[in-house]
Amino acid sequence: MGENSEVRRRGGEQKKAGGGGGPQQGEKKPERSKPFQGRYNPKASDRYGSVSHKSLAKFAMFFGAVFILVYQNYNKSDVQCIAKVTEVIEVTRSQQMLCAPNYKAEIQALDPVCLPARCGRMISDVLVTDEEVHRLLDLAKKGLAQGGGAGGATILDLHSGALSKEKVFINLYKTQPNLFTERDFQAYRTVKDKVKAAVAAHFNLDNSVLHLTHPTFFSELTAVPAVTEHDEYWHPHIDKETYPSYHYTSLLYLSEHRRDFTGGRFLFLDEGAKVNRSVEPRDGRVSAFTSGPENRHMVEPVTGGTRYALTMGFTCDPGKAIKDPGF
Question: Of 314, 270, 318, whose CA–CA distance to 289 is shortest?
């Protein structure tokens, strides 16, 4: 008994000397430190914040994804303006590129003389006079006022009389047979002949091999929301696919960007160059281009005001030619 008591006594003294004495009765055993425990441990510190680290991590990942998408879209939407509304282009401005093989093959089968040496686009502000622009705009408004699309786009084809009215097309020559005068038609023919001659000259063609083709139309675009798919004019497209008879496209602007409307710029979508090129409409500005895949394009949605323009298509196929209006 005495020996055992002595051993226990000495053992207790050794523990005290080593500082490792056990807890006394009534004392709380200290919590042992665990790996990664503390304020910087996500799991351990969740209980001290109003938002969990898991939620913060999700938010950070979401914000990062949005930032990447915005950055990528910003790069894709880089726009180089090749014709500002504030300038007057007196010397024809142009860009050239290779023609798409299927576009070249089609024209060569029809008439090799109608094939451009290189495809491309041109812009000029001196082909049409101010007086001619005002006369055509008056003509367009007179006809467009008889209809009105359900959405933001109204179209008038002066050749066929087709006019968009609400969700359908009506024949303006049946509803208003005497609306236009010979003077109106002559003003239209004069401008058409000027634009057609400029297209032939720029692409080094014989003017006689070009023919006006369907559809050729006035357009009125506003910010009214689209109702039918035909109102959605802003989709990227290729004219040769949308209008199969087209080989050359021309646009004559009858209103001015920023003065008469906002939005509504014309964009060439040059994906190979990783940049879009814009044309800002101004009174009398003519833009013409080959209608193949090399000139994929779109019109920005109009956000305010009213945008007026005249689209004329030209073909190398005499079988797709249309007569001048008024005859």
Answer: 314
The model's pTM is: 0.77
The structural domains of the chain, with segments of one domain joined by +, span 90-249
CA distance 194 to 211: 13
Please state, in angstroms and as integers, the Cα–Cα distance from residue 240 to each residue in 11, 245, 292, following that order. 101, 7, 5
31-73 residue pLDDT tens: 554 444 443 344 444 454 555 555 655 555 555 444 444 334 4
Exposure class string for 30-52: b at 16+ Cβ within 10 A, else e = eeeeeeeeeeeeeeeeeeeeeee
pLDDT in tens, 203-259: 999 999 999 999 999 999 999 999 998 899 999 999 999 999 999 999 999 999 999
Q: Decide if 265 is catalytic.
A: no
Alpha-carbon distances, residue 319 vs 123, 159, 160, 260 (angstroms): 28, 16, 17, 39
Neighbours of 259 (CB within 10 A): 12
**Which of 307, 304, 301 minimizes the C-alpha distance to 282?**
307
What tokens appear for 227 in the block? 């109702």
Of the candidates 121, 277, 282, 307, the residue annotated as catalytic is 307
